[in-house]
Amino acid sequence: MNDIALITGATSGFGRAAARRFAAAGWSVILIGRRQERLEALQRELDAQTDILTLALDVRDADGIADAIASLPEPFRRVKVLVNNAGLALAPQPAQDVDLTDWHTMIDTNITGLVNVTHALLPILIETGQGASIINIGSVAADSPYPGGHVYGASKAFVQQFSYNLRCDLLGTGVRVTDIAPGMSETEFTLVRTRGDKAASDALYQGTTPLQAEDVAEQIFHVATLPAHININRLELMPTRQAWSKFAVDRD
Ligand code: NDP
Ligand code: 8X3
Questions:
Q1: What CATH number is given to the structural domain containing 8?
Q2: What is the pLDDT of residue 244?
Q3: Closest among 179, 175, 194 to 88, alpha carbons compared
Q4: Among 147, 194, 195, 217, which is most buried by a count of CB atoms within 10 Å?
Q5: Residue 52 domain boundaries
Q6: Are strands 81-84 and 52-56 parallel, antiparallel or unpaired?
Q7: Residue 35: which of 56, 61, 4, 6 has the closest Cα?
C-alpha cells in the first residue's frame, strides 16, 4: 500500500507543489482547499501518477474537517504525513489601521484551522506510529517582527510553539513534529495579502530571487522521508538574497 500524505492548502503555492512532489514519489495524496475547481484540476493532473482524494473544505470548519477525516475511505485512512500548510496573511498596513475582521480571519485560519486539522488527524497518526509526521508550515515571521506583521507573525509564533509542545505530548508514539519556517517565497501569498494587487505582488519579488514553491515542497518532502528516528524540530529557510535588518529607531 502507498504511503499517504494529507496536505491542506493544496490549491496553490507550497501545498500544490508538495502535492506534486509526494505524488511524483508514488505517495497517495489527500488534498484540502476551498477552491473546488483547482482541486479538480490538480486531481486530473496527478490521477495518472497515484491515488488522489480531494476534499473541498475550509480548515476553519472544525465539524466539516472532523467529519471528513472520520469518514476517509479505506485506501486513504492510514495517513502517514500531515502537512498543515493552509494559511494566509492579510492587511499589510500598521496594526492601528487594520479591520478587526482581518485579524480574526488570520487567527481562525492559521491557528484555529491548523488546530482543527491536527486534532482530527491525531488518532490516525498515532495509529500509524513510527515514521508518521506532522509538518506545520510556520514562517520566519514567527520570530522576526516587522511592520505590518502584527497578527500574521503572532499566528506563526503560535505554530512554532504548538509544534514544540506537540512533540512533548507525542513522545513515545513515534509521531514526529516539525515547524518549517520559510522566508520570502513567490506564491499567491502576497496577492492574497494585498487583496489581488498584482502590481504590488510582482514588485515584491522583482529584482531578487525569492524561494519558489518547489523549493519549500522539496524541504517538506525531505523532512517527511527522513529515517523514522530523526525529528527535525524546526527548519528555517530563506532566499540567499534575504536577511534580517537593523532595529528601527524613532527620533526627534
Ligand atoms: P498561497 O496563497 O499560494 O496558498 C495558500 C493556500 O492556503 C491555498 O491553497 C489556499 O486555498 C489555502 N487556504 C487559505 N485559507 C484556507 C482555508 N480557510 N481553508 C482551506 N485552505 C485555505 O500561499 P503560500 O503557498 O505561500 O502559503 C502556504 C503557507 O505558507 C501559509 O501558511 C503561509 O502563511 C506560509 N508561508 C508563506 C510564505 C511566503 O512568503 N509565501 C513564507 C512563509 C510561510 P483556497 O484558497 O483554495 O482555500
Ligand atoms: C511569509 C514570509 O516575510 O512575508 O510568512 O512574513 S513574510
A1: 3.40.50.720
A2: 97
A3: 194
A4: 217
A5: 4-237
A6: unpaired
A7: 56
In this prediction, residue 183 carries a pLDDT of 98
CB-CB contact of 78 with 29 (8 Å): no
pLDDT 10s digits, 166-200 = 999 999 999 999 999 999 999 999 999 999 999 99
> What total number of domains does the chain contain?
1
Which amino acid residue places its CA nearest to atom 5 of ligand 2? 139
Residue 214: count of CB within 10 angstroms of its CB: 13
Q: What is the per-residue pLDDT for 1?
A: 82
Task: Examine residue 249 and state whether it is found in any structural domain, yes or no.
Answer: no
Residue with grid cell 523549493, as numbered in its chain: 215
Which of 12, 152, 160, 179 best tests ligand 2's pocket when mutated (most atoms within 8 Å of CB)?
152
- For the question of residue 164 being annotated catalytic, the response is no
- Whether residue 107 is contained in a domain is answered as yes
pLDDT of residue 42: 98
Which parts of the chain register pLDDT below 70?
none
Question: Nearest 5°: phi and psi at 183?
Answer: -95, -155
In a domain? residue 223: yes
Instruction: Give backbone dihedrals phi and psi of 206, rounded to 5 degrees, phi first.
Output: -75, 140
Ligand 2 center–CA 139 separation, angstroms:
6
Task: Give the position of cell 515547524.
Answer: 179
Nearest atom, ligand 2, residue 146 CA: 6
Give domain status of residue 252, yes or no: no
pLDDT of residue 207: 98
CA angle 209, 8, 243 (to 5 degrees): 25
